[in-house]
Design goal:
single chain, Rossmann fold, OB fold (Dihydrolipoamide Acetyltransferase, E2P), 2 domains, six-stranded mixed sheet, five-stranded antiparallel sheet, binds adenosine-5'-triphosphate, nucleotide-binding, ATP-binding, Molybdate/tungstate import ATP-binding protein WtpC, ATP binding
């Protein structure tokens, strides 16, 4: 099932939750809405599910307008952040609840369908258990089984892992991804966690203040952010503003940032033009001869394989991530020189 949002806006009084959002999700695609709290992810999902009506614009399923179509007639399965299982019903009854409006697909009985779904989410034999006796991850898999029971054409997942610990989250998202591709169900997944979005999606849409900033495949959005917001939100770029001083041979330019010159490759700008570019924390390296900056360490964070350093450079906060060799230590107040290759910078504007 193909899903389209055509210039969808949603206003609550004078507040704009969604501002002319247009998106197309292809049949069978795993599509993720990612962005900070309050950017409109849940509102988008609620408009697709039919729990909210857009103030303007249209939601279409396979080209057909959903205006006035109630949620239960849309053939959409939804899993929310809080498991929302019925505590007084068994696991099997909770899954069967997903079939209250429709007959099980494939001509099987209700019991057979429940069994099928529990097997799919790796909970075969859990029919008679009480939801309370399950772990958080298991409860979310029951919620997923319930949403999938009627064979929805579209699956909507609203931060389904956010209540789980990091390890479980990783495992569950791989399971969800596997089940989604096995069933080929068009899926819209909501998360504020950019690394989660990059890990599971065919494509992501980055939302900011009710607007779509960029849509693309994870690698594309990560390596080629189109706006400063996307550059900072996805993978924590260092964003710098400068002016092109001169063009060099080939595609190179010399750029002035606050009285400091950098050489950047692959820049399509002329002398005098301003530009905004970003450099990833892991591309700022000690020992790189080009584009050096000398800063003072303002914070260190040991992360296991890497250490994150905050650097104050000309009153700009710069983040550096260095591989941890187990010996080198970094102290707050220490001076550090790092540099980056001319082709490691990406121009956003
Ligand atoms: P989060 O990650 O925190 O869940 P979100 O990206 O899902 O955030 P939404 O819940 O879609 O964001 O909210 C978008 C904006 O619309 C917010 O500013 C929110 O306060 C506002 N909003 C959402 N629902 C309502 C409502 N029923 N009445 C008034 N304002 C609302």
């Amino acid at each position: 099932m193909k899903l389209e949002l055509d210039s969808v806006s949603k206003r609550y009084g004078t507040a704009t939750a969604l501002d002319s959002v247009s998106l197309t999700v292809d049949d069978g695609e795993f599509f993720t809405l990612v962005g900070p709290s309050g950017c409109g992810k849940t509102t988008t999902l609620r408009c697709i599910a039919g729990f909210e009506s857009p103030t303007e614009g249209t939601v279409r399923f396979d080209g057909e307008s959903m205006d006035g179509v109630p949620p239960e007639a849309r053939g959409v399965g939804v899993v929310f952040q809080n498991y929302a299982l019925f505590p007084h019903m068994s696991v099997g009854e909770n899954v069967a609840y997903g079939l209250r409006f429709v007959d099980p697909p494939g001509g099987v009985t209700r019991d057979e369908r429940v069994e099928e779904l529990l097997k799919l989410v790796d909970l075969a034999g859990f029919e008679d258990r009480e939801p309370d006796s399950l772990s958080g991850g298991q409860q979310q898999r029951v919620a997923l089984a319930r949403a999938l029971a009627p064979g929805p054409a579209i699956l909507l997942l609203d931060e389904p892992m956010s209540a789980l610990d990091a390890r479980l989250r990783e495992r569950l998202r791989q399971q969800v991804k596997r089940i989604q591709s096995e069933l080929g169900v068009t899926t819209v997944y909501v998360t504020h966690d950019q690394s989660e979005a990059l890990a599971v999606s065919d494509r992501v849409a980055v939302l900011n203040r009710g607007r779509v900033e960029q849509v693309g495949e994870p690698r594309d959005v990560y390596h080629r952010p189109r706006t400063e917001f996307v550059a900072e939100f996805v993978g924590e770029n260092n964003v710098l503003h400068g002016v092109v001083e001169s063009r060099l041979e080939a595609e190179g330019v010399e750029v002035d940032v606050d009285g400091h010159s950098f050489i950047l490759d692959g820049v399509d700008k002329s002398a005098g033009e301003s530009l905004t570019f970003c450099v990833r924390p892991e591309n700022l390296r000690a020992g790189t001869e080009t584009n050096q900056i000398r800063g003072t360490i303002t914070g260190t964070e040991f992360q296991g394989a890497t250490t994150r350093l905050g650097l104050d450079w000309k009153q700009t906060d710069v983040t550096v991530v260095v591989a941890d060799d187990g010996d080198t230590t970094f102290e707050v107040g220490q001076e550090l020189v790092v540099g980056f290759d001319p082709d490691a910078a990406h121009v956003v504007a």
